[in-house]
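Justification of computing resources. Each target in the renewal requires a structure prediction run like the one illustrated here; the chain below, 215 residues long, is used simply to show the kind of job we budget for.
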Amino acid sequence: MTHTAVMNWEPDGVVAKVLGFPSQGEAEAHVAAFSDRFPNAFVVPTPAFPEDQWRVQSGQIVDAGPPPAYPTEDSANAAMIAWAEEAERTITGPVSRGEQDSWPAKSVEARAWQTVHDHNTANPGDVQPYPNTPILDAELSLTQSMGETMEELVGRVIARSDGITRITGLIAGLRRTTKAALAAEPDPANYQAILQGAQAQAITLAAAEGFTLEP
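Resulting structure tokens:
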């Protein structure tokens, strides 16, 4: 089609209805036939760039460039949430749901054991009994064959728990501040840069906690 009749467009210049014709005369005839319904329609040589990049400007079709990666605020927020969820899965590692569900109880056991251990170490004349730690005991029954001690296991559990808690909180905070930034940005073309900035910040914060995230 050599010529295009631009029949209608949105207030921001986004082309809403176009028709292609093999000649300029046929396109102009169509525009004239529907002038009562589309008084602002016009005819242009069919642009070479993709139709989703067409914008109306001063009675012409201009190339607006590729559409934004996230055309709406909702799509940008959805992308941020999906990335945050994937980041959290990376942090927790490839473990079963059941093991993840045990982490809070395991952390409680580890902290209780560590509290008593610290007391007993500092007060050899006032030794307190260690608390029951069934989850840690079960794990240690297997890992002690690798030379792991209860003190090492407890230290690892506490360090991992603290790290995951901090980075999960940081990601939640970034998600909220990113949502606010997207809401304040009027141009969807800038949404991708906002998301990339938030992801870069999350990667830096995670690295400080010993975790590696991918953009």
